[in-house]
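Sequence only, no structure available. Ideas?
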Amino acid sequence: MSTYKTKSLDNLEQRMQEADPDSFRRHVLKSAKDFKTSWIELGRALYTVWKDKLYKEWGYNTIDAYAAKEIGIRKQTAMKLLRSYCFLEKEEPQYLKSDYAESQDAALVPGYESVDLLRQAKNKKDLDAQDYAGLKKAIFEKGKDVQEVRKDLTNLIRERRELEPEEARQEKRLSLLKRFLGSLKSLTRELETAKLGSASLAREADNLIKKIEAEINL
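Reply:
I predicted one. Tokens follow.
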């Protein structure tokens, strides 16, 4: 692992030397080098590269290709960085303006994967504002890592569903009905296209589709 890191850093430093010292391109490369100290700076830089399509000016067709070939970051990691930074900018701008700006200790900066989990939690209907606040505190104040945050999130969702078993059952029922409806429509189209079904079978299938759709829309 140490050999890989050394090669990666050597590559970044070489590209930094080749880039114009005052260019934004060199700034992004430096952010990548300082990644462990501050992923937020790299996320902010990548966001600008993506938004302004600067990667095209630098000879890359996609942001994925740029991230992989120029700064040595896989697509999955690059997307998490972008999503996590955008989430902070949109949902927690005060952190970027105060806490993060004032902090000189890298250990106080939450990991991008933890922030990405917080982003996912924000959109989960099983959780309420208090649940979100608890997760946010665990990440920004207690410094929990992604494994601990993921465990907390899983436990919270399980607790909420145990408290509301009927709602969870209805949610599962609706999900199964939608899957069944999709499969039924697809198979019915195949039968009609191949002319393998009778007219009466087609009518029955159509009636069943309408009944399921009515159940879903209740």
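The chain has three domains: 1-103, 110-163, 166-216.
Hope that gets you unstuck.
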